[in-house]
Amino acid sequence: MAAAAAEAEPATEEGTLSIYKAARRIKRRGSTLYNALRSVAEDAAFVAEIAALWPALPLVANLRCGLWYTQPRTLAATCYFKSTDGHAGNWSFSTARLNLHLALLAGERGGCIIVDSTRKGKRFPDSMSKTIPIWCSVLNRAIQRHRLRASNQGSRTNSEMSAAAPNGNGEKYSGSSNWDSSVHLPVWVLDTEKNAIEGRVEEWTDRFESCGADIHSLALGDDEESWARGLTPALFWKHSYDLLDGGPDLCNQLVADIVEKDRVYRAQRGERSPQITVNHLKCSGDDGPYFYEEHTIITKPMNSDPSIITPIDTPCSNNSHLVVFWIGRSNLAVSSTIQVAVDLADVDCILNCDSTSRLPSSSSENSYLEIAIVGSKNDRFSLLKNLPKAINFAQRNLIARRKILLCCQTGEDISICVALAIITRLFNDSGCFDDGDSFVKRNITKLEMRKRLVFICKYAINARPSRGNLRQVYGFLCNEKAQLCC
Protein backbone atom coordinates (compact mmCIF):
# COMPACT_ATOMS: atom_id res chain seq x y z
CA MET A 1 0.00 0.00 0.00
CA ALA A 2 2.85 2.36 0.91
CA ALA A 3 4.57 1.63 -2.40
CA ALA A 4 1.35 2.25 -4.31
CA ALA A 5 0.87 5.53 -2.52
CA ALA A 6 4.45 6.55 -3.34
CA GLU A 7 3.86 5.79 -7.00
CA ALA A 8 0.65 7.80 -6.97
CA GLU A 9 2.33 10.93 -5.60
CA PRO A 10 4.20 11.91 -8.82
CA ALA A 11 1.02 11.40 -10.84
CA THR A 12 -0.91 13.55 -8.38
CA GLU A 13 1.84 16.20 -8.49
CA GLU A 14 1.81 16.11 -12.29
CA GLY A 15 -1.94 16.42 -12.31
CA THR A 16 -1.96 19.42 -9.98
CA LEU A 17 0.66 21.44 -11.91
CA SER A 18 -0.32 25.07 -12.21
CA ILE A 19 -0.52 26.66 -15.63
CA TYR A 20 2.55 28.73 -14.80
CA LYS A 21 4.65 25.69 -13.85
CA ALA A 22 3.44 23.74 -16.87
CA ALA A 23 4.33 26.62 -19.19
CA ARG A 24 7.76 26.93 -17.59
CA ARG A 25 8.38 23.20 -18.04
CA ILE A 26 7.37 23.32 -21.71
CA LYS A 27 9.59 26.35 -22.29
CA ARG A 28 12.51 24.63 -20.57
CA ARG A 29 12.12 21.54 -22.74
CA GLY A 30 11.91 23.69 -25.86
CA SER A 31 15.12 25.60 -25.13
CA THR A 32 17.48 22.63 -25.01
CA LEU A 33 20.82 22.59 -26.80
CA TYR A 34 19.55 20.07 -29.34
CA ASN A 35 16.57 22.25 -30.28
CA ALA A 36 18.88 25.24 -30.68
CA LEU A 37 21.20 23.34 -33.03
CA ARG A 38 18.24 21.91 -34.93
CA SER A 39 16.88 25.43 -35.40
CA VAL A 40 20.27 26.64 -36.64
CA ALA A 41 20.45 23.78 -39.16
CA GLU A 42 16.96 24.53 -40.52
CA ASP A 43 17.72 28.24 -40.86
CA ALA A 44 21.02 27.39 -42.57
CA ALA A 45 19.11 25.25 -45.09
CA PHE A 46 16.92 28.27 -45.85
CA VAL A 47 20.02 30.43 -46.33
CA ALA A 48 21.43 27.83 -48.73
CA GLU A 49 18.19 27.89 -50.76
CA ILE A 50 18.30 31.67 -51.08
CA ALA A 51 22.00 31.64 -51.99
CA ALA A 52 21.31 29.05 -54.71
CA LEU A 53 18.90 31.49 -56.39
CA TRP A 54 21.76 33.98 -56.90
CA PRO A 55 24.88 31.82 -57.30
CA ALA A 56 26.95 34.71 -58.66
CA LEU A 57 26.60 36.71 -55.44
CA PRO A 58 29.09 35.92 -52.64
CA LEU A 59 27.76 34.80 -49.26
CA VAL A 60 28.90 36.98 -46.35
CA ALA A 61 28.34 36.26 -42.64
CA ASN A 62 27.78 39.14 -40.25
CA LEU A 63 29.81 38.41 -37.13
CA ARG A 64 29.22 36.72 -34.90
CA CYS A 65 25.85 35.09 -35.34
CA GLY A 66 25.98 34.89 -39.13
CA LEU A 67 28.70 32.23 -38.93
CA TRP A 68 26.22 29.76 -37.43
CA TYR A 69 23.93 29.91 -40.46
CA THR A 70 26.55 29.54 -43.21
CA GLN A 71 28.63 26.48 -43.93
CA PRO A 72 32.34 27.37 -44.09
CA ARG A 73 32.77 26.00 -47.63
CA THR A 74 30.11 28.42 -48.97
CA LEU A 75 31.38 31.50 -47.15
CA ALA A 76 33.15 34.18 -49.18
CA ALA A 77 33.88 36.69 -46.40
CA THR A 78 32.71 38.06 -43.06
CA CYS A 79 31.61 41.53 -42.02
CA TYR A 80 30.84 43.25 -38.73
CA PHE A 81 27.75 45.45 -38.47
CA LYS A 82 26.34 46.00 -35.00
CA SER A 83 22.60 46.24 -34.41
CA THR A 84 23.19 48.89 -31.73
CA ASP A 85 24.31 51.31 -34.46
CA GLY A 86 20.78 51.06 -35.87
CA HIS A 87 18.72 51.22 -32.69
CA ALA A 88 16.07 53.95 -32.63
CA GLY A 89 17.57 57.21 -31.39
CA ASN A 90 21.05 55.67 -31.30
CA TRP A 91 21.85 55.69 -35.03
CA SER A 92 25.56 55.80 -35.74
CA PHE A 93 28.20 55.23 -38.40
CA SER A 94 31.19 53.47 -36.87
CA THR A 95 34.65 54.37 -38.15
CA ALA A 96 36.03 51.43 -36.15
CA ARG A 97 34.00 48.99 -38.27
CA LEU A 98 34.30 50.36 -41.80
CA ASN A 99 33.99 46.99 -43.59
CA LEU A 100 35.74 48.45 -46.65
CA HIS A 101 36.64 44.96 -47.86
CA LEU A 102 32.90 44.28 -48.19
CA ALA A 103 32.44 47.34 -50.40
CA LEU A 104 35.24 46.11 -52.66
CA LEU A 105 33.78 42.59 -52.80
CA ALA A 106 30.27 43.85 -53.59
CA GLY A 107 31.63 46.19 -56.26
CA GLU A 108 33.59 43.42 -57.95
CA ARG A 109 30.78 40.84 -57.85
CA GLY A 110 27.78 43.11 -58.39
CA GLY A 111 26.47 42.71 -54.84
CA CYS A 112 26.52 40.19 -52.01
CA ILE A 113 24.22 38.29 -49.65
CA ILE A 114 24.71 39.12 -45.96
CA VAL A 115 23.51 36.59 -43.37
CA ASP A 116 22.45 37.76 -39.91
CA SER A 117 19.91 36.92 -37.22
CA THR A 118 18.15 38.63 -34.35
CA ARG A 119 16.62 37.78 -31.00
CA LYS A 120 13.25 36.13 -30.58
CA GLY A 121 10.41 38.60 -30.88
CA LYS A 122 11.96 40.70 -33.65
CA ARG A 123 11.24 39.97 -37.29
CA PHE A 124 14.30 41.73 -38.69
CA PRO A 125 17.65 42.69 -37.12
CA ASP A 126 18.42 46.40 -36.83
CA SER A 127 21.80 45.69 -38.42
CA MET A 128 19.96 44.79 -41.63
CA SER A 129 17.15 47.34 -41.53
CA LYS A 130 19.20 50.41 -40.51
CA THR A 131 22.93 49.88 -39.80
CA ILE A 132 23.77 48.53 -43.28
CA PRO A 133 21.59 51.09 -45.14
CA ILE A 134 23.34 53.87 -43.18
CA TRP A 135 26.72 52.37 -44.11
CA CYS A 136 25.77 52.16 -47.80
CA SER A 137 24.51 55.74 -47.84
CA VAL A 138 27.64 57.16 -46.17
CA LEU A 139 30.01 55.32 -48.52
CA ASN A 140 27.95 56.33 -51.56
CA ARG A 141 27.88 59.94 -50.36
CA ALA A 142 31.68 59.91 -49.97
CA ILE A 143 32.08 58.39 -53.45
CA GLN A 144 29.74 61.04 -54.87
CA ARG A 145 31.83 63.80 -53.30
CA HIS A 146 34.99 62.23 -54.68
CA ARG A 147 33.56 62.03 -58.18
CA LEU A 148 32.39 65.65 -58.04
CA ARG A 149 35.81 66.83 -56.85
CA ALA A 150 37.45 64.86 -59.65
CA SER A 151 34.99 66.39 -62.11
CA ASN A 152 35.79 69.92 -60.95
CA GLN A 153 39.53 69.29 -61.15
CA GLY A 154 39.23 67.88 -64.65
CA SER A 155 36.78 70.44 -66.00
CA ARG A 156 39.54 72.74 -67.30
CA THR A 157 41.32 69.86 -69.04
CA ASN A 158 38.03 68.59 -70.45
CA SER A 159 37.16 71.99 -71.89
CA GLU A 160 40.57 72.24 -73.53
CA MET A 161 40.28 68.74 -75.00
CA SER A 162 36.74 69.39 -76.24
CA ALA A 163 38.15 72.04 -78.58
CA ALA A 164 40.22 69.34 -80.29
CA ALA A 165 37.74 66.47 -80.03
CA PRO A 166 34.07 66.72 -81.04
CA ASN A 167 32.73 65.04 -77.91
CA GLY A 168 35.59 65.84 -75.52
CA ASN A 169 35.79 64.06 -72.19
CA GLY A 170 32.82 65.75 -70.59
CA GLU A 171 30.89 62.51 -70.42
CA LYS A 172 33.49 60.97 -68.13
CA TYR A 173 32.05 62.64 -65.05
CA SER A 174 28.51 63.27 -66.25
CA GLY A 175 27.10 60.70 -63.86
CA SER A 176 28.67 62.18 -60.73
CA SER A 177 25.62 64.23 -59.76
CA ASN A 178 23.33 61.27 -60.44
CA TRP A 179 25.18 58.94 -58.07
CA ASP A 180 22.61 57.43 -55.69
CA SER A 181 23.58 58.35 -52.13
CA SER A 182 20.15 58.34 -50.50
CA VAL A 183 19.20 56.18 -47.53
CA HIS A 184 17.21 53.11 -48.60
CA LEU A 185 15.30 51.76 -45.60
CA PRO A 186 12.65 49.01 -45.38
CA VAL A 187 9.03 50.11 -45.74
CA TRP A 188 8.24 49.46 -42.07
CA VAL A 189 10.69 52.11 -40.85
CA LEU A 190 8.69 55.22 -39.93
CA ASP A 191 9.15 58.40 -41.96
CA THR A 192 10.11 60.33 -38.82
CA GLU A 193 12.95 57.90 -38.14
CA LYS A 194 14.02 57.94 -41.79
CA ASN A 195 14.11 61.75 -41.82
CA ALA A 196 16.19 61.77 -38.63
CA ILE A 197 18.70 59.35 -40.17
CA GLU A 198 18.89 61.26 -43.45
CA GLY A 199 19.57 64.45 -41.50
CA ARG A 200 22.77 62.97 -40.09
CA VAL A 201 24.23 61.37 -43.23
CA GLU A 202 26.25 64.49 -44.10
CA GLU A 203 27.73 64.55 -40.59
CA TRP A 204 28.67 60.87 -40.80
CA THR A 205 30.20 61.38 -44.25
CA ASP A 206 32.34 64.23 -42.92
CA ARG A 207 33.51 61.96 -40.10
CA PHE A 208 34.23 59.15 -42.55
CA GLU A 209 36.36 61.40 -44.77
CA SER A 210 38.16 63.03 -41.84
CA CYS A 211 39.16 59.69 -40.33
CA GLY A 212 41.61 59.05 -43.16
CA ALA A 213 39.78 56.24 -44.97
CA ASP A 214 40.82 55.77 -48.57
CA ILE A 215 37.89 55.63 -50.98
CA HIS A 216 39.93 53.47 -53.34
CA SER A 217 40.56 50.86 -50.59
CA LEU A 218 38.68 48.49 -47.13
CA ALA A 219 19.58 35.55 -32.90
CA LEU A 220 20.61 32.35 -31.36
CA GLY A 221 23.97 32.90 -32.81
CA ASP A 222 23.97 36.40 -31.34
CA ASP A 223 24.16 35.00 -27.79
CA GLU A 224 26.11 31.79 -28.21
CA GLU A 225 27.74 31.95 -24.77
CA SER A 226 24.38 31.31 -23.11
CA TRP A 227 23.61 28.04 -24.88
CA ALA A 228 26.44 26.69 -27.09
CA ARG A 229 28.44 25.08 -24.21
CA GLY A 230 31.78 25.80 -25.86
CA LEU A 231 30.68 24.71 -29.34
CA THR A 232 31.84 27.00 -32.16
CA PRO A 233 30.32 27.40 -35.63
CA ALA A 234 33.29 25.57 -37.17
CA LEU A 235 32.91 22.61 -34.78
CA PHE A 236 29.15 22.55 -35.30
CA TRP A 237 29.38 22.29 -39.08
CA LYS A 238 32.18 19.74 -38.85
CA HIS A 239 30.02 17.44 -36.67
CA SER A 240 26.54 18.64 -37.66
CA TYR A 241 25.28 15.27 -38.91
CA ASP A 242 26.32 13.44 -35.74
CA LEU A 243 24.86 16.13 -33.49
CA LEU A 244 21.50 16.30 -35.24
CA ASP A 245 21.16 12.55 -35.76
CA GLY A 246 21.99 11.87 -32.11
CA GLY A 247 18.73 13.41 -30.95
CA PRO A 248 18.04 15.63 -27.92
CA ASP A 249 18.96 12.99 -25.33
CA LEU A 250 22.56 12.59 -26.55
CA CYS A 251 23.16 16.14 -27.75
CA ASN A 252 24.66 17.60 -24.57
CA GLN A 253 27.05 14.68 -24.13
CA LEU A 254 28.08 14.76 -27.80
CA VAL A 255 28.83 18.48 -27.58
CA ALA A 256 30.86 17.97 -24.40
CA ASP A 257 32.89 15.20 -26.07
CA ILE A 258 33.49 17.25 -29.23
CA VAL A 259 34.59 20.34 -27.30
CA GLU A 260 36.90 18.32 -25.04
CA LYS A 261 38.48 16.42 -27.96
CA ASP A 262 39.09 19.68 -29.77
CA ARG A 263 40.70 21.17 -26.65
CA VAL A 264 42.98 18.14 -26.22
CA TYR A 265 43.85 18.16 -29.94
CA ARG A 266 44.87 21.81 -29.80
CA ALA A 267 46.86 21.30 -26.61
CA GLN A 268 48.75 18.37 -28.14
CA ARG A 269 49.62 20.49 -31.17
CA GLY A 270 50.77 23.31 -28.94
CA GLU A 271 48.23 25.77 -30.27
CA ARG A 272 47.63 27.17 -26.80
CA SER A 273 51.33 26.96 -25.86
CA PRO A 274 53.03 27.59 -29.18
CA GLN A 275 56.60 26.45 -29.74
CA ILE A 276 57.96 29.26 -31.86
CA THR A 277 61.00 29.11 -34.09
CA VAL A 278 62.13 32.55 -35.22
CA ASN A 279 64.12 32.60 -38.46
CA HIS A 280 66.11 35.41 -39.98
CA LEU A 281 64.68 37.56 -42.73
CA LYS A 282 65.86 37.43 -46.32
CA CYS A 283 65.42 40.76 -48.04
CA SER A 284 65.80 41.59 -51.71
CA GLY A 285 66.34 45.27 -51.01
CA ASP A 286 65.62 48.10 -48.65
CA ASP A 287 62.34 49.12 -50.24
CA GLY A 288 61.32 46.02 -52.14
CA PRO A 289 59.14 43.11 -51.10
CA TYR A 290 60.52 40.46 -48.78
CA PHE A 291 60.77 36.96 -50.24
CA TYR A 292 60.67 33.63 -48.43
CA GLU A 293 60.81 30.00 -49.36
CA GLU A 294 57.07 29.53 -49.91
CA HIS A 295 55.37 32.93 -49.52
CA THR A 296 55.86 36.51 -50.53
CA ILE A 297 55.00 39.29 -48.12
CA ILE A 298 53.77 42.26 -50.11
CA THR A 299 54.29 45.58 -48.35
CA LYS A 300 52.49 48.71 -49.49
CA PRO A 301 52.57 52.37 -48.38
CA MET A 302 49.83 53.94 -46.29
CA ASN A 303 47.91 55.19 -49.33
CA SER A 304 47.95 51.85 -51.13
CA ASP A 305 44.84 49.97 -52.12
CA PRO A 306 44.38 47.14 -49.60
CA SER A 307 42.46 45.12 -52.16
CA ILE A 308 45.76 44.24 -53.82
CA ILE A 309 47.59 43.43 -50.62
CA THR A 310 48.02 39.69 -50.39
CA PRO A 311 47.96 38.16 -46.91
CA ILE A 312 49.82 34.97 -46.08
CA ASP A 313 47.62 31.90 -46.15
CA THR A 314 49.17 29.11 -44.11
CA PRO A 315 47.38 25.76 -44.38
CA CYS A 316 47.08 23.63 -41.27
CA SER A 317 46.15 20.01 -40.74
CA ASN A 318 42.38 20.53 -40.90
CA ASN A 319 42.63 22.40 -44.23
CA SER A 320 41.53 25.71 -42.76
CA HIS A 321 43.47 28.84 -43.71
CA LEU A 322 45.06 31.07 -41.13
CA VAL A 323 46.02 34.58 -42.05
CA VAL A 324 48.74 37.02 -41.03
CA PHE A 325 47.86 40.62 -41.88
CA TRP A 326 50.79 42.92 -42.67
CA ILE A 327 50.06 46.58 -41.91
CA GLY A 328 51.35 48.53 -44.90
CA ARG A 329 55.10 49.13 -44.80
CA SER A 330 55.25 49.42 -41.03
CA ASN A 331 57.06 46.07 -40.53
CA LEU A 332 54.19 45.15 -38.20
CA ALA A 333 51.82 42.23 -38.61
CA VAL A 334 48.87 40.95 -36.57
CA SER A 335 47.60 37.41 -36.18
CA SER A 336 46.19 34.94 -33.69
CA THR A 337 48.35 32.60 -31.64
CA ILE A 338 46.92 29.70 -33.65
CA GLN A 339 48.90 31.00 -36.64
CA VAL A 340 52.07 31.15 -34.55
CA ALA A 341 51.60 27.48 -33.64
CA VAL A 342 52.42 26.65 -37.24
CA ASP A 343 56.09 26.93 -38.23
CA LEU A 344 56.30 30.62 -39.07
CA ALA A 345 59.38 31.76 -40.98
CA ASP A 346 58.14 35.18 -42.04
CA VAL A 347 59.04 37.31 -39.02
CA ASP A 348 62.09 38.34 -37.03
CA CYS A 349 60.45 38.70 -33.64
CA ILE A 350 57.13 38.04 -31.95
CA LEU A 351 55.17 39.98 -29.35
CA ASN A 352 52.72 37.52 -27.81
CA CYS A 353 49.80 39.14 -25.97
CA ASP A 354 47.91 35.89 -25.36
CA SER A 355 47.47 35.24 -21.64
CA THR A 356 46.93 31.50 -22.31
CA SER A 357 50.30 30.88 -24.00
CA ARG A 358 53.73 30.22 -22.48
CA LEU A 359 57.21 31.51 -23.35
CA PRO A 360 59.07 28.90 -25.43
CA SER A 361 62.47 28.10 -23.99
CA SER A 362 64.06 28.08 -27.46
CA SER A 363 63.35 31.76 -28.10
CA SER A 364 65.71 34.53 -27.05
CA GLU A 365 64.66 37.57 -25.07
CA ASN A 366 65.38 39.90 -27.99
CA SER A 367 63.21 38.01 -30.48
CA TYR A 368 60.26 37.05 -28.30
CA LEU A 369 58.29 38.87 -25.62
CA GLU A 370 55.28 37.44 -23.84
CA ILE A 371 52.84 39.81 -22.15
CA ALA A 372 49.77 38.33 -20.48
CA ILE A 373 47.04 40.79 -21.46
CA VAL A 374 43.39 39.96 -20.78
CA GLY A 375 40.27 41.61 -22.15
CA SER A 376 38.83 44.78 -20.69
CA LYS A 377 35.86 42.87 -19.28
CA ASN A 378 38.19 40.86 -17.03
CA ASP A 379 40.65 43.65 -16.20
CA ARG A 380 39.98 47.26 -17.14
CA PHE A 381 43.66 48.20 -16.88
CA SER A 382 45.48 45.09 -18.18
CA LEU A 383 46.33 46.58 -21.57
CA LEU A 384 47.19 49.98 -20.09
CA LYS A 385 49.68 48.46 -17.63
CA ASN A 386 51.45 46.35 -20.29
CA LEU A 387 51.64 48.81 -23.18
CA PRO A 388 54.96 50.38 -22.01
CA LYS A 389 56.67 46.97 -22.31
CA ALA A 390 55.15 46.44 -25.75
CA ILE A 391 56.25 49.89 -26.96
CA ASN A 392 59.82 49.39 -25.73
CA PHE A 393 60.04 45.96 -27.39
CA ALA A 394 58.67 47.31 -30.67
CA GLN A 395 60.88 50.41 -30.59
CA ARG A 396 64.03 48.35 -30.05
CA ASN A 397 63.27 46.00 -32.94
CA LEU A 398 61.95 48.63 -35.35
CA ILE A 399 65.18 50.61 -34.92
CA ALA A 400 66.98 47.42 -35.98
CA ARG A 401 64.57 47.20 -38.98
CA ARG A 402 63.17 43.88 -37.86
CA LYS A 403 59.71 42.62 -38.75
CA ILE A 404 57.42 42.11 -35.76
CA LEU A 405 54.39 39.86 -35.40
CA LEU A 406 51.81 40.95 -32.83
CA CYS A 407 49.55 38.10 -31.80
CA CYS A 408 46.73 37.54 -29.35
CA GLN A 409 44.23 34.73 -28.87
CA THR A 410 41.90 35.88 -31.66
CA GLY A 411 44.06 38.32 -33.61
CA GLU A 412 41.10 40.70 -33.68
CA ASP A 413 41.19 42.80 -30.51
CA ILE A 414 44.23 43.03 -28.22
CA SER A 415 46.84 42.69 -30.97
CA ILE A 416 45.01 45.36 -33.00
CA CYS A 417 45.04 47.74 -30.03
CA VAL A 418 48.75 47.10 -29.41
CA ALA A 419 49.45 47.82 -33.09
CA LEU A 420 47.42 51.02 -32.79
CA ALA A 421 49.49 52.16 -29.80
CA ILE A 422 52.77 51.37 -31.60
CA ILE A 423 51.80 53.14 -34.83
CA THR A 424 50.51 56.22 -33.00
CA ARG A 425 53.52 56.40 -30.69
CA LEU A 426 56.36 55.57 -33.10
CA PHE A 427 55.15 56.41 -36.64
CA ASN A 428 54.46 59.67 -38.46
CA ASP A 429 51.38 60.65 -40.45
CA SER A 430 52.78 59.00 -43.59
CA GLY A 431 53.06 55.63 -41.87
CA CYS A 432 56.86 55.72 -41.61
CA PHE A 433 58.80 54.85 -38.47
CA ASP A 434 60.37 57.97 -36.91
CA ASP A 435 61.04 56.73 -33.36
CA GLY A 436 58.36 59.00 -31.91
CA ASP A 437 59.58 62.36 -33.27
CA SER A 438 56.19 63.28 -34.74
CA PHE A 439 54.43 62.08 -31.58
CA VAL A 440 56.19 64.83 -29.61
CA LYS A 441 54.93 67.53 -31.99
CA ARG A 442 51.43 66.16 -32.54
CA ASN A 443 48.38 66.65 -30.33
CA ILE A 444 46.79 63.37 -29.26
CA THR A 445 43.08 63.40 -29.98
CA LYS A 446 40.52 60.70 -30.55
CA LEU A 447 40.31 61.79 -34.18
CA GLU A 448 44.05 61.22 -34.67
CA MET A 449 43.77 57.80 -33.06
CA ARG A 450 40.73 56.98 -35.20
CA LYS A 451 42.67 57.79 -38.38
CA ARG A 452 45.37 55.31 -37.46
CA LEU A 453 42.82 52.67 -36.52
CA VAL A 454 41.24 53.06 -39.96
CA PHE A 455 44.69 52.64 -41.51
CA ILE A 456 45.16 49.37 -39.60
CA CYS A 457 41.66 48.12 -40.47
CA LYS A 458 42.33 48.61 -44.18
CA TYR A 459 44.85 45.78 -43.93
CA ALA A 460 43.63 43.71 -40.95
CA ILE A 461 40.10 43.33 -42.24
CA ASN A 462 39.06 41.07 -39.35
CA ALA A 463 39.89 43.73 -36.73
CA ARG A 464 37.28 44.07 -34.00
CA PRO A 465 38.84 46.15 -31.18
CA SER A 466 36.64 46.53 -28.12
CA ARG A 467 35.72 49.94 -26.80
CA GLY A 468 37.28 49.20 -23.42
CA ASN A 469 40.66 48.35 -24.95
CA LEU A 470 40.58 51.38 -27.25
CA ARG A 471 39.92 53.55 -24.21
CA GLN A 472 43.02 52.10 -22.54
CA VAL A 473 45.14 52.86 -25.62
CA TYR A 474 43.93 56.45 -25.61
CA GLY A 475 44.70 56.76 -21.89
CA PHE A 476 48.20 55.38 -22.42
CA LEU A 477 48.95 57.79 -25.26
CA CYS A 478 47.69 60.75 -23.24
CA ASN A 479 49.91 59.73 -20.32
CA GLU A 480 52.91 59.38 -22.64
CA LYS A 481 52.26 62.82 -24.10
CA ALA A 482 51.96 64.37 -20.64
CA GLN A 483 55.27 62.84 -19.53
CA LEU A 484 57.07 64.14 -22.63
CA CYS A 485 55.72 67.65 -22.10
CA CYS A 486 56.91 67.80 -18.47
Automatic annotation (TrEMBL):
Residues 150-161 have a biased composition (Polar residues). Residues 368-477 form the Rit1 DUSP-like domain. GO terms for biological process: charged-tRNA amino acid modification. Residues 26-218, 221-260 form the Rit1 N-terminal domain. Residues 149-176 are annotated as: Disordered. It comes from the Eukaryota. Gene3D superfamilies: Protein tyrosine phosphatase superfamily. One of its GO terms (molecular function) is tRNA adenosine(64)-2'-O-ribosylphosphate transferase activity. This is Initiator tRNA phosphoribosyl transferase family protein. The gene is LOC100844067.
